[in-house]
Amino acid sequence: MIGSTSVPEMPMTSSPRNVLSLLLCAALLAPFAAGACAIATPEQQAEYRRKAVIKAKEDVLALRDRADLVFMGWLKRLDFHQETRDMGPGKHPQVLQVHEAVFDTVDVIKGTYTPGQTLTFTTNKSLVTISCGTDFMDSLPQENGVGEHYLVYAKDGVILRTNHAPRKPQVLQAHEEAQLMRAMK
Description:
185 residues, two-stranded antiparallel ribbon, 34% strand
């Protein structure tokens, strides 16, 4: 992961002082993470983007080889439940969200998708990620993604990654629009 940091969750028995310490630490780190993304000339940003595209293409091909199922499909249903997993002595439990996804109108690229087949993925609600880089593997459907179109990579019934394919892509992405407006101030 380029420029990302995982912060472990707070202990369940955290005192107000521990909470304050964690918030202060996050507040101190946030400007540095944001600044790391902003300190580049337009030429450097273009070069970073070019290299990121090359790396993303390599990652896509490696993921395709790793997956036993790749398809384009509409997310028909996304259910989830929470699980708390004990991580052993001296370690804090992890709160995980286990998702179950069913897709419709599937166009298979690799493997076989049986209509109504449930695919799963798990997210860890105990971690906070601070990142200014792209995180190739961190793309999964969100709770409000039902009815949206996705490119899906899965192995053994587990979703490895998805890529949202909006019905009507915008000419400018939201962050590009915001950057334009900030530049015009």
